Amino acid sequence: MSDSETIFSPLALTEPLPFLPLAQGDVDYDTASRPQPGLLDRLLEQDGTGVILVRGEKVAVPKGKGALAGRTGASIRLATMPAAYLRDPLTGSADQFEPPCYYLGKADQQAWLALDLDLACTNQAVQDPLRDLAQAADQRFDWLGLREYAPHGRPRQVGLATCAVALSVWHGRQAFCPHCGAPVHPCQAGWAQICQGDESGDQHTLFPRIEPAVIMAVVDGRDRLLLQHNQKWPSGFRSVTAGFVEAGENLEHAVRRETLEEVGLNLGEMRYLGSQPWPFPASLMVAFRARSLNTDIRVDGQETDEADWFTREEFSAALASGRLRIPQAASVARHMIEQWYGSEL
């Protein structure tokens, strides 16, 4: 019997991943309210509205809590403040100026906003009190990247942070209309941009673009897991196969194409495992487990330079010795590897 043959399929008992760190939020996005004129001002005046702070890929946590990131079992909450604290700095600005906030939605009847300090500091319409607040926040809080924060946060707060980071990164990267090159300004409570129009007066409403990517745990007939090394990664770091979906391509085709391109393996059956947003800067990771029909690995030598099959015993020994490093806890890849392994690592 060859390595690719088996009586019992290694995918037979595969179940969807029960937990993905960035896909646990339970907030009602309240999308119908976003286009309402003056929504952000009203929410700032509303008792009970909560605000989190975001700066690009980082969110604010209470001072001293940042040191807990990476510690097993550590719990870290977001730094939050009542909207009343921000009313004066955020209201009464220039005409047609929308506060540098994003309406994240409602949870248990409480509205949540994210104050984007990067946007606040770059917008010419922002008043000095808000600039002063942004500078003070840099000193008063610790700032963690979403990758570091997510494994330690409660699901609802991780969901809020994920949306806030995704919007902050988008606004930070797109200051001009991709259609005509005119400047853009946030609208719809931060979930869209309005283009100021070209010489013809043509305007566009722009929305965040999401880039779907597939990620797959490839196993052979003996249930060995394929782990590969990208040339850009540090020595010893391995992960599962992944790649972006191309134009006109469905997810299943992308899984097969990327695996064949990177490691020369043809795939048979596959199972969907789950998905989660990955706003670095704008991806949606869609996870699969797939069985390879052959075991002869042929790396492309351009993106992937090493790849090997691992039994659970080989994997455990390599991890314990330090010869092998794997993705961090916030990633889909880590949970896919742990599912295959049979326990947390």
From TrEMBL:
GO molecular function annotation: metal ion binding; NADH pyrophosphatase activity
Domain Nudix hydrolase: 208-332
InterPro entries: NAD-cap_RNA_hydrolase_NudC, NudC-like_C, NUDIX_hydrolase-like_dom_sf, NUDIX_hydrolase_CS, NUDIX_hydrolase_dom
GO biological process: NAD+ catabolic process; NADP+ catabolic process
Top-level taxon of the source organism: Bacteria
Pfam family for this entry, one: NUDIX
Keyword Ion transport on entry: no
GO terms for cellular component: cytosol
Record keywords: Hydrolase, Magnesium, Metal-binding, NAD
Top EC class, one word: hydrolase
Keyword ATP-binding: no
The protein's Enzyme Commission number: 3.6.1.22
Cofactor(s) essential for the protein: Zn(2+); Mg(2+)
Reaction(s) catalysed (UniProt annotation): a 5'-end NAD(+)-phospho-ribonucleoside in mRNA + H2O = a 5'-end phospho-adenosine-phospho-ribonucleoside in mRNA + beta-nicotinamide D-ribonucleotide + 2 H(+)
Similarity comment: Belongs to the Nudix hydrolase family. NudC subfamily.
Name the UniProt record assigns to this protein: NAD(+) diphosphatase
Organism listed in the record: Bifidobacterium asteroides
